[in-house]
């Protein structure tokens, strides 16, 4: 039995971890922290937990709804850190010092370059020394390194969707390093704190773009796509030219990225066909339990509550572009589900443990 | 391993059974039927099934996404019948004849009185001889009889919500048999066939009442509440006076019934308090894994995708009434989840097998 | 030209007044107040006002998007007060002292009895002396008194829906004074301030009841239905026995009340028919421009953005009850539209001035 | 008084015309046609019309809710044709022959080149001879030609949004003719016929892309942007390279296009700034009553039910791209509102007649 703490359990990524861990046979949540809710029981903050969590396979339930929220985490084997950036790094340092393995859901350890971090997050990095040892927690790319890590930097939701959508094309060297990502996210991506933007009467029946002058997920996407291209023998010169625009959709969960890139042609000016590219994508993800290449445009609702990602590549022959549509549940594969996938790798468990459910549809 | 067929798998109750059975360790779906989709593979009709279903505990997966939809069910141990009424009864007769146990999700075997059935469903009952042996599949009430049944009549969604909400009060004899049930349902309750009423632009941002001249779930509610009162020693004279009005809500899943009843007072004209009634309710449902009495008004979203039901009773001292708010997911505890709960009972399995997940929240 | 101020324009009832007044040929908004937004121009707070407001019929536009929000209202002929209760009363006193006519959208002057007000609003009434002269602004009932008023107490949204739905029945003396009102409202009824309850991910795809231990609109409904019954020669003895339960729906606008009452039978035990009651309702509202008796269950979406109310009465012969479904847009006929209707009456204008648009459908 | 017919009034563009015309002082609807609804009164098909339409300015109301739907239009001065393509062209021919002016909301006369039409619409054009005289009804571009037309080809919804968003940039010659348009539309754009894609439980809480192998609005966009560039002295060589991907959003109304284009730099490699481009846009639309350049990302909800379009251009300095976000209500400025704007021009009325209302917000 592995003991687990959830730091800042009252965030949406924290409560989603509770939901997922309730089905996990090996991890037991023994410590949860919060800020304004310190001293309350989990079931007071999340009344639906009164449904209770059953014991699986003869051991104690993975979660006790009566667990009391504390300010500081108790000693556990593993911690999921669901704090905002900067606060997260401080907590991570303390946890690592006491020997706890950490999956950090914040942005603090995702960017390898301190300067880039400080440019985008506008403050001094609290623990730059850890950047080198932190492993970027995109399991599909870093599956080999994660088991040996003590700190996993769990990717962002826009990031995961986009990188999974474009990695096979960059790995195969079939597109130019000049891309546009138009990403559409459900509102839970904005977190659990009420604000005018997320007030129901304002957000309902509304679509808008945000982050147009630059969104923090962009350098993260650039870093990883550059790495994928290089790792597969198709490095490009200079920086990736990337425009990334996130949009807010009137729904709770789900993220869908539409990615556009110039296709390279072969020596005869011939473009690859959709069938060829789909085959290339299927091969790339052939053994992935959570990434699925499909032959029709996917729907975010296919992924509701699940850890699955669906990807649909298609060639726009007229404009000589590759279009890739990629979607997943922003709180699962885009956050807490992926965090649990990382935790499974950290503890040598099958990657799908506790994550095998299908999306809730309709 | 128990083999299972889903008759009319292309209904929402059928596809929901697929989702739930994918997590079930003992049942394996070996036959699925449809009408217009005969000859297609499951994953063609439900593309999200391409995510695949993992093998649990070393046995074959509960569902094969490549299973081909047939017109008639193959021989299986158990069948879930998801056909509309009348068509369901005909299928049930055939299945029982070949020795298959049946959980019927239609209304055909819910009403014990043929005349009542024929009054409300406007056609001759196709198999009245089966009415006597059919067991009403509300596990909380008929848990003792279900294991020995060969035909279980799975209750309706409005019905389950209302009966669970009012049973403790009728069992305790604290209310008069004169009730109003104002029920609010998500749109998946209307099924998978498109129609103007359920067309997104019409149903979105809209609330309306329907069935005002009489809804078929009403006699079912009356039958069961009358039975509960009698079984607990508080039979009432004459018919239950009941007004039941369903409403359509702009959401996919969830049903919430607000139930109103006159409270009886004691010899001194004193009414029971909310605390006394809550205690009575908690006692009534003390051992139920899926029914939870809560101390704040419940939200349908607490139940999203889960088999749980939350109930909140409160006394309106001013108007001398009992108000009970009861909610659940219409496709799970209101249909397919309850069907699986019944199937577990039929096969001597723990009632919660495959049904232990929490609601997806937010 | 009549000058108008909107006190607390940054509320939803305030901004809705802006939208409606933009189409009004006689009123010109010359003063708007706010709290945290003092010093900003209207178009800064409501960017969609940059669309501009055209001049109608050769006069200046009714609204200037560049109007600056102030803390105190300037001198105007008329003021709409959109403050919360208590704060509203204080503002009203000052406005009346300077000779401004007031339509108050708060609850401060709706209840005629100070004790009832103080019981439900839990504070001392700031201006009890004004209660006598204030006129309750339900135009359909008080059309004769409103033109001579200086202070109109604009009814609440649940209240308007329910009273319009039940008034004809009480006026005709056909029901017993024992009613249940199950009201369903869109989320804009909760105002423009973000809070966890109205946070999109929580409120979306969710239905819940609230105010179960007593909602402030209840005494208002009781007061007015009692008055209607008495005014039409069918006073009842004692208090109206009323249970009122509001519910929150996952939509922005719209309110639908389902009202239940015992029908009286005639000397021979015969109940009125639905046709008789519909005829009675049609007669009652025959000359109303905004209240429409319909022959099928109405939809809140029929009223989106309009000042119309649709009412559908039906007899439940089995349970001997009258059911009335009534719906409207909570921000228009349930608030700002009705306020404008009152203002039209105050200034001798046709009641429909600026209010003639149909609902936006779909 | 100008008499008007609406051909296929039972479409969403038809019913939206009814709503808008109800506020119009000069047009009177004297004929409406349908298919399956022939013989019914308007108010039977659209029950919310029972609210009635008031007489404006002492003349008869613009719409009579009791008007009976016929198979063929009666003789009128003007007709709005709301039929699907091909059927529309046939109706247009007949109407023109009898001297009726026509605003055609279908795609039949939008493309000037017959071959392009036949390539995209897969059938022989029913009336190619009319293509030359038809005027493309984008008022902002063809304001001078529309008044003299007898046939106006009303633009599509995606088209209007995109063209308005990109025209100033092409007119100024500041971008290369290589663009990506990622368009997001509400579901009413799919029309009034129910289908699985638009079935509430499927479309709710879902985002998906469609038309990825080529959408018919694309050649229309290409035609008009090419024309704008040429008309303003910045023609480009060869075809516009354009990728257009529409997406379905879980909301009823609203369309938002995010447009991406390479910015040209000046001789010194310097890009224009956002301020410079916004100024250029503001100048381009300075006198437009319905097109507004804003300084923050616009929301589709700002436009709900109104004829307004909001446009936000911004420079992505890092990637050297222009991003333009453009939004409007697909049923108003994207269809019926623009049709009415065209009709106003045809009859020498102020372009804003009947179209002056603000969006319904929230």
Structure overview:
- Chains A, B, C, D: Catalyzes the NADPH-dependent reduction of N-acetyl-5-glutamyl phosphate to yield N-acetyl-L-glutamate 5-semialdehyde.
- Chains A, B, C, D: This is N-acetyl-gamma-glutamyl-phosphate reductase.
- Chains A, B, C, D: Belongs to the NAGSA dehydrogenase family. Type 1 subfamily.
- Four copies of one chain form a homotetramer.
- Chain A is of the alpha/beta class.
- Chain A folds into two domains: 2-133, Rossmann fold (3-Layer(aba) Sandwich), CATH 3.40.50; 158-329, Dihydrodipicolinate Reductase, domain 2 (2-Layer Sandwich).
- In chain A, 27% of the residues lie in helices and 20% in strands.
- Chain A has helices at 12-21, 42-45, 87-97, 114-121, 139-142, 157-172, 200-203, 217-231, 274-284, 332-346, and strands at 2-7, 27-32, 78-81, 101-104, 135-136, 151-153, 175-185, 208-209, 241-248, 255-263, 291-293, 309-316, 321-328.
- A seven-stranded mixed sheet of chain A has the order 8-9-7-10-13-12-11. In chain A, strands 2-1-3-4-6-5 form a six-stranded parallel sheet, with helices on both faces.
- In chain A, helix 1 crosses helix 10 and helix 6 (157-172) packs parallel to helix 8 (217-231).
- The longest helix of chain A has 16 residues, at 157-172.
- Chains in contact: A-B, A-C, A-D, B-C, B-D, C-D.
- The interface between A and D is large, with 47 and 47 residues.
Topology:
The structure is a homotetramer of 362-residue chains.
Chain A: E1 2-7, H1 12-21, E2 27-32, H2 42-45, E3 78-81, H3 87-97, E4 101-104, H4 114-121, E5 135-136, H5 139-142, E6 151-153, H6 157-172, E7 175-185, H7 200-203, E8 208-209, H8 217-231, E9 241-248, E10 255-263, H9 274-284, E11 291-293, E12 309-316, E13 321-328, H10 332-346
Parallel strand pairs in A: 1-2, 1-3, 3-4, 4-6, 5-6, 7-9, 11-12
Antiparallel strand pairs in A: 7-10, 8-9, 10-13, 12-13
